[in-house]
Amino acid sequence: MDTLTDFIDRNRERILEELKSFLRIPSISTTPAHAADCRKAAQWVADHLAALGCRQIELLGSDTHPVVWAEGPKRDGRPTVLVYGHYDVQPPDPLELWESPPFEPTERNGDLVARGATDDKGQVFAIVKAFEAVSSNGEPPVNVRFLIEGQEESGSMVLFDLLEREPHRVEADAVLVSDMPYFAPGWPSVETGLRGLCYAEIEVRTLKSDLHSGLYGGVAPNAHETLVHLLARLKSPDGRINIPGLYQAVKRPSKKELEGWKKLPFNERKYLREEVGAKALTGLKGYSPLERTWALPTFEIHGIAGGFTAEGAKTVIPAVATAKVSLRLVPNQRYRTVQRQLAAAVKRLAPKYATVTVRFVHGADPVLVDTSAKPFELIDRAFREVEGRGVVFTRSGGSIPIVPALGKRRAPVILAGIGLPDDRLHAPNEKINLNQFWKGIRVFGRFFELMGTELHRSR
Ligand code: BES
Ligand code: MN
Ligand code: MN
Known about the structure:
By secondary structure, the chain is α+β, with helices and mostly antiparallel strands.
């Protein structure tokens, strides 16, 4: 039996208990009331890494949502792997849809169910345990640095500021990020692209104050009507986004990349029925679902607030209405540019009688990864040995705002998660499949070993 499998066999129960205690901390970064819990989760990670022999442990940049920095034992002449992940999680609501409480991790059918189980505490913890496994004699095969933040789900501002001040933190021979699923069960993937994000709140005010809809209906401008009209004009029913200039920077994937996607095990009917759960897919004609989710921008309305929605009836003309919207961005769009384009489009569509404001909440640039560096071969080998299949190159429609900044000192950024497509991230009953978790420890442990031997020798 190899040392990694042996490590897991001997420590299975303890590791599971540790992961559960991490998952019990409700470190919801998007909710100010949970600031103390975020701090607690950061401290938990820091203490855990200290107990594994890390030094130089720091909580950086914020009292409430600090970035955890830790360095493993120094191995002169060995390559450095920087591990990025996040300890913050999304809010758990709607609570009534959880079969067990979100912050009471529960084992069910080979899964561990809890908020953060896969996004991202469980995946981060698999790397931490891999580090433990390969450090058992106090000498890990590589220099490992941890950069674990607490604001990924709310825009990563603290970490952006930190890396602006201290860019040397991302100097490494490889950056390892595990915060995404396999392409399919049995099909590990390395993401070659992530989408960016431009999140905004649009407010429409049409009146000084709400008015009686009988007395003033027919003359008074309705804020909700104005808002939905405006939103409807931002995107056509055929899926095209009507923001001038938006598609200009969009770069079509290469022929080779598109060919590769065609070979992936993807069944559109199954995807529609089982994963999406709709009657039909929507979006631009002439592009495959993979291209629409990986390589084209989106415009989504997340929610509309204002006016009267309580029980009963109220005859009112609302004075104010707001909508939360976002665009997903693709290479080579820039979120700063898209912010300007959205603001201009809204301004152009706003009727003269309304005061329309756009407030930007957060943004992220898209990511395109060049996978030619040696560490990509090594992660492929690690998966091949553990999973029995090497990686496929895919993209993902999701966003991780800090990823472009992680590559700024030219370290190859490896996006290789161990989740599964049905992990329900951000949704009720989020889970990590425990089999995936144990395999993850072996994959990342093997990656550390290979980085120590192979990259070392090639230099
Ligand atoms: N881990 C996800 C992003 C992700 C999911 C990437 C699946 C690839 C595959 C991350 O925690 C996330 O949810 N990011 C947010 C961005 C943020 C600014 C709110 C997202 O994509 O909505
Ligand atoms: Mn995540
Ligand atoms: Mn997330």
